Request: fold
Amino acid sequence: MERSLERVVETRIEMLEREKGRSEAEVQEDCAFCRSLDCDIIFALLFTIVIICLLVLIMVFWLKGVLQYEDSKQKGHFSFPIFPKAPTGVEPTTELNLNEPATNIQCIYTFVAGQKQRVKLEFDSFELAGTADNCELEYVDIYSELQNPSDDLLSAQLGGRYCGTVAPHVRISLHNVIVLIFHSRVGKRRANLSLRGRYHFISDARYNAGTLIGGDRCGFLIEPKKKRKGQILSPTYPGTYPSNFHCTYLLKGNPGDRIRIYFRDFDIYFGGEHCPYDSMTIYDGPTNRSPIIRKVCGLQQRMEMFSFGSNMLIEFNTTNPAKSDPRGFVVEFEFSDQFVKVLDLLDGQKGVSHLRGSECDVRVESNRETTHYIQSPAYPNMYKTNTTCTYILDGLQGDQNLEMVILTFETFAVLSDPPSGVVLTSSDYDELECTQAFVGIATTEASMKAVMANNEESTYDATLCERFQPKAEQLGPYSSRGPRMVVIFGSGDPIVDDGQKPHGFRAKVEFKTDFGIPGEAVGDSNKCQFRFRTERGFFNSPRYPANYPLDTNCTYFIQARPGKQIVLYFEQFALHGDEKGKYDCNDWLEIFDVFTQKDGTETLKLHAKHCAGTFPGPTVSTFGSHEMRVVFSSDSSGTANGFKAFYEVRNAFKEDIPSKEGLEPRHCGHRIVAHSDFVTGSVVSPGYPIKYNKDVICDWEVVSRPGHQILLRMVGMDIEGEMTSSHVSCQNAVVRVDKDLQNADRTDVLELCGTDASRVRPIISTNSSVRISFFTSPDKVNGLKGFNFTWTEVRIVEHESECSGEDLYLCTYTKLCISARLRCNGEINCGEHDDTDEAHCNKMENATDLLTTIVAATFSGFIFLFIFGFFCVLFKKKLERKKKLHRRRNAASAASTGHHRHQQRHRQRNPYRSPKPVAKGRIVVHASPIDGETFDNGRIPPPAVSRFVHHDVTGIMPTPPATTVTPLTGLRIDKL
Reply:
C-alpha cells in the first residue's frame, strides 16, 4: 500500500520535472531583443515602410509622365517637359505657383541603350519658340556622340541646336548614349509647346561593315571570305552623321576578283562642285595614293562603280558645315570574278583605255589619223547577261587638228528574238526592236548628250541587232558629225544564242581629218577638198564657227549642169588681219569661174579675191560658166572665225548684158552706146530713188566711141553697208564697177556701198567700155534708195591741139577732152577736182538770174494791181447800195408816221401758205431792217402773217387796233 502511494508520488514528481524542463527549453528559444519589443515600435516601423512605398510610387508615376520608359522595353515614347501640377486640396503659395510655367528652366534627358546597341530618336511633334535661325529663348540641344552618360557636355561635340517648328531629323547615337537638353526662358509668353517623339534601342551590328582596323573607331576591312555581298552604312544612318568625322572602308578581294559598289541611298552635304566640305572618295586600289575613281557629295541615286583590280578604298570625311541634317549613305558592295575582263577588252592597243570606275566602258583616242578596234565583252564567245558597255571614240580636237570618226563593223552577231514566225530580210532590220541585246550608235551632239545622260532611255542615230552577213549595209561605215562618236552595247536576260559563232561584234575605228565642212569629200581624208552638186546649200571655212587652223588650204567645187548659173552670197566673213589694222592678204578667199571646153579641159578665170577687211557682197557666176571654184588659204601668222557662204543654182540668163531694158524680168540693165549726139547720161538702180528689193541682179555696160573712154561720177548713193578707208562691208547689197573689161582676172573690180557718195571718186575706164553691176542678197535686205551714176564720154589728150574745135572743150586740170555741148549743163563732166566746164558759166548764170527776177517781179506787180482794182470796184458798189438803202428806209419811216391812223383798211385774207413748216425747231426772222415799201408800210406780208396770227372761223383776219406801227427791225419766234 505504502509502495503504491510512494510510486504514485514519484510518478507525479517525474511529471512535474518533465514539464519544468519543457518550460525552460521554451524560455531558452526566445531572444532578449524580442522580449524588449513592444507594440508602439512595431507600429512605427510598419508606418515608415508604408510611407517609403508611397514615395516610391509617387516618384515612379511622376517619371512616367516625363519619360515613359521601362528597362525591359526596347522602344517607347517621350514627351517633355512636364511641369508639376498642384495636388488636390493644396493652395498654391507665393513662393511657387505650380499652375504657371517657370520663366527659366533647363531639363536634361539621357537615353542609354545596352551594350552593342544604339539609341534612335524620331520626333513626331516639335513646336518651340523662336525660328530655325534664332534660337535665343527656347531650344533643344542634341548630343549624339557621347561614349558614356557621364561625359562632360561642355567639352562634347554638339550634334545640333533646334527650335521653332522645324523638327530635327532622325538621330542615331554614335555609341549607346544620346542626351537632350531642353532650355526655355519663355515663361508666361508661351503660346504653344509641343515636343513629342519616339525612342528605339537598336542593334549596332549593321554599322559594323567588317573588321575594325587597329584602334580606328571607324575603319573597317571588308573581305569576301566572310561575305561576298553586303552593305556599308554611314556611322549613324539614317540619322544625321557626325561632324568632323573620318571613316575608311577597305574592300580587299581575291585575286581575279573585281569589286562593284552601288549607291542605294546617298545624301551628303553639298558644298560645291568639287566637294570641299563633306565628301566620299573612292580609290581604285588599296590606299589613298591609288587613282581616284570619283569624289562625290550631295544627292546621288542609282550610281555604281567598279574597281579595275581586286582592291578598293572608300574614304568618308565630314567637316562642320551649315546645319542641313543629311542622312548619310547606304552603299552596296559585291565581290565577283564574273565581271567583264577589262584587259581582254583593251586587247593591248595603244590609245585604248578603260574608263575608271566602269565595268567595261572604253575610250579610244586618236593619235592623228590612227586606226583602232573595239569588240564586245568576251568576244568571240558569248557575252554575259545584263551588261552595258560604252565605247567613247574621240578624234583630235584642237587649234590645229580636228578629226571625225568612221566606224565599220567587221563582224556583228548581237542577237535579239524576232517576233514568232517572222523571217527577217534586210529591210526588216530598220524596224526591228532589239529587246534582248543591241548596239546603239550616236553620231550627233544631241544624241550623244542624251546617251551620256541616260543610255537606257536614249534615242540613237542607229540601233543594230541580229547577225549580219559580210558586206551588209548595216555594217557601215558610220561617220560622226564632229570629233566624237559614242557606241553602246547592252545585253539583257536571257540572252539569245543561235548556235553559230562568233558572238558579239568587232569593229574598226578610223580617225580622219574633219574640216567641219558639209559636202562630198574629194581625195584623201587629210585634204580639204569638197564637192557640192545640190541645187542649193552652204559651205564654210574649216571648223566654222570656231577659228580655222593655220597653214590650211581648202577648195570648194560648186558644180551645176550646163545652162545654169550660180548665185553666191555670204552670211559671215572674217579673216585674220594684223593687230595694227593693216589687212595684208595673208589669208584670202578666191572665187573662180570655171569654163569647160568641148574636149573636157577646164579654164579658170578669177572672179574675185577677198582678204581681211572686206565683207563680200552677193555675186553671180560669169555668163557661160556653170561651175565655180572657191579657194581658201591661211598662213601661220594668225587665225579668225572664217566665213560661211550660201549658193543657189538657177537657170542662166539669155544674155550677158540685156540688149534692152526689161527684156528679162530676172535680169535688169542694158547696154548703153555713146555717139556724137549722145555723150552723157545716167545709170540708176531699179526704181531709184524708191527702195530696192532683195534678189536683184542688174548689169549695165557703157560703150564709148573708138578712141574715147567713159568717166563715171557717183551723184547719189544710199546702199546698205559701210565703206571706210580700211574696211568695206557690202554684205547684202553691192555695186560693182569693172573699168577694165579686157582684163580676164577682174582684179581691179571696185565694190561700192554705203550712204556717203563723196567717198566714191570719179572713175575712168581703162578702155572704151565700163561695166556696172548691182546685186542684192536673195535672203534679205533693208531696202534703201539705191544709187545714181552719171557717165560722160571723154578722151584723154596730151596736147591741147588734140582737143581743138568749136564742138570740143578741154578741161583745164584733168586734160580731158569733152563735147562742148556739156559746158554749163549743170553737171561736172571734167572729172575729179576739175569743174572748169561749169566755172565759166557763173556770169551768165548771174545775168540770167537777174533777168528772171525782173520779169517775175513785173508780172507779180501786174497781178497785184489787178486784184487791188477789182476789190476797189466791189467796195465802191457795195457802198452805193448801202447809201440808197438808207435813203429808202428813212423815206418809208416818215410816210408811215403821218398817215397810218387814217389809212388802215380791211384787207382780204390771203390764202394760207403751206401748213407744213419749212424746217423743224425754232423759226428765226433775221434781225435786219425790213423795207417799208417792200412790205406794205412795214406790215408783214400776208403769207408771213398767216403763219403767226390767230384767225377767226371765217378765215378773215381781225382788224388790228389803231396803233402806230413802227418799222419791224427784228423778230425771233420759237416754235412751241
In short: Residues 842-899 form the longest helix (58 residues). The longest strand covers residues 403-414. Helices lie at 2-29, 32-36, 39-66, 342-346, 445-453, 836-839, 842-899, 942-948.
